[in-house]
Amino acid sequence: MGTQPLVLVADDEPRITKLVSIALSEEGFRVVTATGGEDALAKAEEIRPDIVLLDIVMPDLDGIEVMRQLREQRPVPVILLTAKGATADKAKGLDLGADDYIAKPFHPDELAARVRAVIRRSTGVEPGAGVVAFDDVEIDLERRMVRRGGELVQLSRTEWLLLQHLATHPGKVVLHTELLTKVWGPEYRDDLQYLRVWISRVRRKLGAKPGEPGRIRTFQGIGYLLDVEGTAGGGGGDAAEEGDTDDAAMDAGSTEPNSAAPNATEPAKVG
Fold first, then answer.
1. Beta partners for 33?
2. Backbone conformation region of residue 61, classed left if phi is above 0, alpha if psi is from -120 to 50, else beta
3. Which end of the chain is less packed: N or C, by CB atoms within 10 Å?
4. Confidence band of 252 (pLDDT split at 50, 70, 90)
């Protein structure tokens, strides 16, 4: 799996978006650009980026308003870009919820470092977090890669985000609501059937047989646990809850139990 972080950059100056795109692409990021605030909102809804870089001054919607509307949809890290270098402007942006602030002109190396730092803070994955390993599976949290039997595993972005949240807390139960909120947004916090289908997909990618939980244990009515030691008991009912229901839905071609939910059929490979 190789999902490098997906960055959305919005600025009405083409030379700025080009510079940022080149600088971040050379550092391994995937970059999508937008020409203004409205364009940024539309593209954010479509691609669901890992982080958004916003120019504060744009002709249609300014960066502050775009950030506000983005945060209404789902939690996403935001870095503000602006030609204004005054301390007051920086403080205002941070007070209104920005994760970081970079004044133009900026050095490409500093930009890439700031983006990496904000993503680490937002995902809870620190440098040197290392590899979570079990059976023939290796999950590299920092490099965002998964190998099984020495081969790269192709994961969609949604599958990676689910696995990342579980692998960041190995051996601990992650609540249903936490997974749904962090991956899809607060409006999906109660959509358990949707979560079950995606958990079933991840289980298959990690080698679990149909109808079996593999290393992702179910705690009914609570959440899921990545059992790296192979000792967690779980709350029972894995096959009934995750196997029969989810596999049947997948085999029937139904990958969207909630048709309004985002990214239900996204084909991206992670990493």
1. 9
2. beta
3. C
4. very low
Residue-range domain boundaries for the chain: 6-123, 131-251
Buried residues in 15-28 as b, exposed as e (16+ CB within 10 A): ebbebbbebbeebe
Q: What does each C-alpha distance from 36 to 63, 82, 111, 155, 262 come to in angstroms?
A: 9, 14, 20, 31, 23
Report whether 147 contacts 262 (CB < 8 A): no
CATH class of 6-123: alpha beta
Strand-pairing partners, residue 8, are 32, 52
Return all residues near 202 (Cβ < 8 A) that are at least 6 apart: 155, 159, 162, 163, 216
Output the six-digit token pair for 43: 């593209």
Nearest CA to 36 among 67, 69, 10, 54?
Answer: 10
Q: What is the largest CA-CA distance in the chain?
A: 59
Q: In what order do the strands lie in the sheet with 30-34?
A: 30-34, 6-10, 51-55, 78-82, 100-103
Q: How far apart are the first and last CA of the chain?
A: 5
Question: Are 137 and 163 contacting, i.e. CB atoms less than 8 angstroms apart?
Answer: no
Strands 173-175 and 216-219: unpaired
Q: Does domain 131-251 have CATH number 1.10.10.10?
A: yes
Q: DSSP character for 75? A: -
Residue where the block lists tokens 């289980």: 203
Please give the helix or strand (H or E) that residue 261 lies within, else none: none
Q: Could you report the per-residue pLDDT of 69-125, keeping only the tens digit for each?
A: 988 877 789 999 887 665 666 677 777 788 888 888 888 888 999 998 888 777 766
Residue tagged 């009515």 (tokens): 221
Token pair for 232 = 């967690």
> Cα separation of 23 and 60, whole Å?
26
**CB contact set of 178 (below 8 Å; sequence gap of 6+):** 165, 223
